[in-house]
Amino acid sequence: xxxxxxxxxxxxxxxxxxxxxxxxxxxxxxxxxxxxxxxxxxxxxxxxxxxxxxxxxxxxxxxxxxxxxxxxxxxxxxxxxxxxxxxxxxxxxxxxxxxxxxxxxxxxxxxxxxxxxxxxxxxxxxxxxxxxxxxxxxxxxxxxxxxxxxxxxxxxxxxxxxxxxxxxxxxxxxxxxxxxxxxxxxxxxxxxxxxxxxxxxxxxxxxxxxxxxxxxxxxxxxxxxxxxxxxxxxxxxxxxxxxxxxxxxxxxxxxxxxxxxxxxxxxxxxxxxxxxxxxxxxxxxxxxxxxxxxxxxxxxxxxxxxxxxxxxxxxxxxxxxxxxxxxxxxxxxxxxxxxxxxxxxxxxxxxxxxxxxxxxxxxxxxxxxxxxxxxxxxx
Length: 379
Prior knowledge:
This protein is α/β, with parallel strands linked by helices. It folds into three domains: 96 residues, no CATH class; 148 residues, no CATH class; 112 residues, Rossmann fold. 49% of the residues lie in helices and 10% in strands. It contains 19 helices and nine strands. Strands 7-6-8-9 form a four-stranded parallel β-sheet, sandwiched between helices. The protein has a three-stranded parallel β-sheet with strand order 3-4-5. Helix 18 links the parallel strand 8 and strand 9. Helix 3 packs antiparallel against helix 4 and helix 9 crosses helix 19. 55% of the residues are buried.
């Protein structure tokens, strides 16, 4: 039997009956102009699937389910009781998986993540082992430290230099850290593609790795990973055995102490990643870390919970690459509206995409900016 749990079926019905309060915020609708490509349209498709013969295996349902980055841009304007749009999106995808209709690329993404391989590029998709980066991280780490640095698949795969910069930043700020014995995917690809069994197994493995480290806290670099490990996992009955925080919060707290700063104050336009700004409400910490590291923070036209998504999440680059490119184009328009010398984002995947789209502008992930914004960087 496939379908939605009672609470999510009710949420879909309520969303489908709403007068589209979130319509103007949906980046997919802005890119495609298709009224079906917004939360109201997705919800109507899900409600129709509940009463149809083909259900969630229908090709139109599958397309609708994945024409979304689960960026949560629709969450702030939503005033409908009982509707949490990310939860509904993930529930629909789980129903698609239960119906045996998950896109093949999604099944591959989950299998690669389960094998410990990380996504390097999205067009065409490529995965590889990241052992060399982890080995370099271990060279900067301190065995038995109370803080565990968890780079996440996004940093290790799309921007390995950012993972190394995170280690250098922590060392420069006087924070001892360790890294996992081996990389464990937190499970976000499994959540993204609706595989509840794989998600549970990955969360269990992540918890075991954290417990084995003996660390009291975990600094998670990839924002989607910190959303899952720190926010979603406890709701799923899989709390982690240590305090989980986004790396941005850890860097901001440490950088608030007196530190040597860069002699020149470079203007940096900061981009709020969706999983920091909307999924976790982490807004001030990245800006504080940049300011403490000697940057003048410049705001983009769309910021905070109104930030523009880069299109790198929710499996969108794998299932709908043209829509993902449209998301990125809108973010590039925001960046082009500023004269800042540097663009900084709190997400390694966002940084990788922006670097490709803005070859003539310096783009840094937050840890790279912090590492470069203090003197005597540890090499």
